Amino acid sequence: MMAGTRRTWLSVVTGVVATLIYFGTAELIARSLDVASAPALLIGQSLIPLVPTVLVKSAIAVFGTHDKLALVITIVAGGAGCGALIGWIGARRRGLALVLLIGFGLLSAVVGFSSGAGLAATLPSLGGVAAGAAAFLVLLHLAGTADHSSADTAAGDDQQNRSPARPGRRAFFGLAAGLSAVGIAAVAAGQSAATLARSAAGTVTKLVLPRPATSAPEIPAGAELDVSGLTPLVTETSDFYRIDTALFSPSIDAGTWMLRVHGMVENEFTITMAEILDLPLQEHYVTLTCVSNEVGGDLVGNAKWLGYPIRDLLARAKPHSGADMVLSGSDDGFTASTPLEVLTDDRAALLAVAMNGHALPRDHGYPARLVVPGLYGYVSATKWVTDLEVTRFADKEAYWTTRGWSTHGPVLVASRIDVPRPGATVAPKSGDRIVTAGMAWAQHTGIAKVQVRIDNGDWAEAELSEELTADTWRQWRCEHTGLSSGTHTVAVRAIDQAGNVQTSERRPPIPGAATGLHERQFTVE
What we know:
Blueprint: H1 3-33, H2 39-47, H3 53-63, H4 67-90, H5 94-117, H6 123-160, H7 167-203, E1 258-263, E2 269-272, H8 273-277, E3 282-289, E4 300-309, H9 310-317, E5 325-330, E6 335-339, H10 340-344, E7 350-355, E8 358-359, E9 369-371, E10 385-391, E11 414-419, E12 425-426, E13 434-441, E14 447-454, E15 460-461, E16 463-464, E17 474-480, E18 486-496, E19 518-524
Parallel strand pairs: 1-10, 12-19
Antiparallel strand pairs: 1-2, 3-4, 4-7, 5-6, 5-10, 7-8, 7-9, 11-13, 13-17, 14-15, 14-18, 16-17, 18-19
Helix pairs in contact: 1-4, 1-6, 1-7, 2-4, 2-5, 4-5, 5-6, 6-7
């Protein structure tokens, strides 16, 4: 290899390693100081509002609830690519490359400081820059040594026709590999620590929850069907899906949290958490659904929520005539536009403070969030809520509506197959009986029927579990006989109480919402 080419490649490796050390060091400092200002998170949070909607949908479809981890990995990989370019420049102009590396590292410090987080938010980036720059200079020095060693070796080979040891190159690649491993491990450790901290924040909260003035209904005996592999009626909090625009969940002190209610109202007011907990709180089972849920997807869950009716908060505020929307705002800057009539009718729309008997976990909106049956989350389920502005659709737009999404997002009737699993081989029971089962939902309207068919045959009506409430999903099961050995396709559709049928046409009647029949193949022995 030519000496110049060899020197360039060594410098490229140097740049990549330096950026990995930068990200890793900054991540560890952020975790040790308990500040949410690791560069990958700061850059990611700044990028999220700029990402085109089609890419957001694609990311959620591919990665599901791991979309944020995928973004962090992408940012670190992109940073490594920038480091490679800086290293390439460093092969020719070391001073310029060092300036570019420092500038790249300080970018996240500027983002953190400008976000209002203060000087503490810049410390991880500053520490990362120092470590990354040091690694860059050391490795560039070793790269020069390795390059000279290789040149000397080449000359020796011409004379002796053999390949002696190359200590300079071994030292370079050994240190580069070690530092890369340290950087990657540090990022991984930091992300793991952040995940554990978020989990702990939901379990060691200081909130003392009162007994509900209105308890949730008892779960009927027939509300859960005895089918192995079927999703439980109530979703465990740890299994509940999380889709939002926050790369890291806000850390909010319930003792200082306040909700402001204002806008087109007669009585503007703010209310504290202590005041909320003194009110007659209600418990309700409500199923929530993400608009990005793919047909047959798992971005849907059912939980028992404790909170105060939003309609009572709005009644206290007394909205003006002409108002038709409530713009809810989150601590992280997210907003959602919810029809005023939905928040003032008889449905269980709550300012929720608890989930499945415990204070809200941080990732699910601690200390307070909105829960609105019958609407997709992007127009209703604001987490970390701090603001309710009564206004008009003609005057204000929310986070997703500014990106072309529909202003109204009623949940579409849907169903999915849980049993059998995709591609499963099924042994008939009790002769030639095969069982299929799954879930169906049409929040606030309710499920009337679920129908199943095999191999494009006739639709057969499935057995439905007892309805908990119209705001929750229902389980279904269906028995099939006479199926021959081999591969078969099962399809399911639901019909709600208003007569709306889950369509077989995969079209988005609400921008972003996936519709269509859920189908699955399985094999009969």
